[in-house]
Amino acid sequence: MRNFLTTALLLCGIIGTNAQLSDPNNVGPTTKLSAKSKVCNVLNYGAKADGKTDIGPAILSAFTNCAKAGGATIYIPPGNYVQATWVTLSGGSHYAFQLDGIITRTGTAGGHMIIFNGATDLEVFSSTSKGAIQGAGVYWHSQGKGVYGPRIFRFVNCVNWSLHDLALADSPAFFIVVQEGSNGELYNLVMHGHNEGGLDGIDISGTNHWVHDIEVSNKDECVTIKSPSKNIQVEQIYCNWSGGSAIGSLSTGTSISNIYYKNVYSQNCNQMMMIKSNGGSGSVSSVTFENFIGHSNAYSLDIDQYWTGQAGADQSTGVKLSGITFKNWKGTCANGAQRAPIQIFCSDAAPCTNIQITDFAMWTDTGSYEYYKCRSAYGSGGCLKSSGSSSYAAITQTVSTAPAGYSAPKMSRDLTSGFDLASSIPIPSLSNTFYPGLNVIKPLMNGSGGVSGGGSTTTAKTTAAGATTMKTTTKAATTTAASGGGSCAALYAQCGGIGWTGATCCSSGKCTYSNDYYSQCL
């Protein structure tokens, strides 16, 4: 099914001819969910949807005793769970992790809440598109900037896997880390974090990964490529009051090639795209950034090989950047005289070559002119020198006329401010669009099975003998009006907690206490 779907997307032009995936037909799980039909329901392994019993041991037990052998799905039914201890699921193949409930972090250890290590043919998802993890990071962040807890997900050397249809709120540190591996697909995800650094959305490395239809709110990395990486495609990304996307930071032995970012929307971010390093060695090559829209970002196109985040590095060496293309960028920066919308500061020890900038139309929100700044950089467009290979001092080009066609559409979900460190963050809902004018590449599951389920709904059924199996049914879509007032929270939504300013009543269910920072309609 995966190969058929990907071929269809190629024919429709959704995965374009510029795509950098080395093998578009080999991304994501190798088997359907129907092939993972044995259900490992965490309620049968000690979990309780009571808002107080630690689900960590139940997840580990369901994996070890039921799912690891393959052909199975770890199932977390709708309900309110807490996680006080972290789990590492090592090995395993041909299994799924279905999170339809909401897990709230209550433990205070560092590390990662859930690690998938060395899995093959793995699918992590919510069949309802309402499953979520509430990180309750306000516990740390309210103590001041720079105070962090655990990260949420880490995928280590996994092969043929996916993560989709989930919401992550208020991570205590990074949301998702992908550590190498291959053939992964991350899509239909939304992450809302506090307005500070150290809360990266997706940090990814590896080979032949596809990342699409993602929303990130924080004040650090949105979707960022780390070394080593090759053949990664990132598209339809919504950096919504975030740090913005990046490649880096880069250091010794950098190896990044064949990267393609397309259809990226950034508003009120630190940058639209940044390549950052200071000293180091190795290379970044064959990278394209196409169809970028920005509004009121600090920096726009920013290559900084003197990045202060790596202060004190040996600048007698540098990471070599070559074959990097920027095309069809439009929108505004906050102040183009204060922070140049084109800033390409390359290493004097390893000048950038073959940098191409075309159809670049960014204008300043403040003032009547903006700067382009370049150093030791060669190519075409902006302030780049057209030929040469030696270092040169920074040069500045003044732009005093707004470029034609800089006006760009906005998104209806644009935040008007970042999330305050002293307040809890509600679990966000998933959207059907992550870039102006484009729908999601793969439809949300929304209880109807989505792409993986083929329009069917999968439910758990326990037999008289105690075994649990999957039951798959197909039904027409229906719409049910919520009972109660329209100003109340929906079923499974947040309805209370320290710092919560939203609805405190429920249109369906009862507002149930989970912890001091989170109550939920159940």
List keywords for this structure.
disordered N terminus, 26-stranded mixed β-sheet, 3-stranded antiparallel β-sheet, mainly beta, 4 helices, single chain, 522 residues
General description of the model:
By secondary structure, this protein is mainly beta. Helices cover 6% and strands 44% of the residues. The strands form 3 sheets. It has a 26-stranded mixed β-sheet that branches. A 3-stranded antiparallel β-sheet has the order 29-31-30, with no helix packed on it. Strand 30 and strand 31 (518-521) form a beta hairpin. The longest helix has 12 residues, at 56-67. The radius of gyration is 23 Å and the shape is globular. It starts with a helix and ends with a strand.
Give a short overview.
The protein is mainly beta and 522 residues long. Helices cover 6% and strands 44% of the residues. The chain has a 26-stranded mixed β-sheet that branches. The protein has a three-stranded antiparallel β-sheet with strand order 29-31-30, with no helix packed on it.
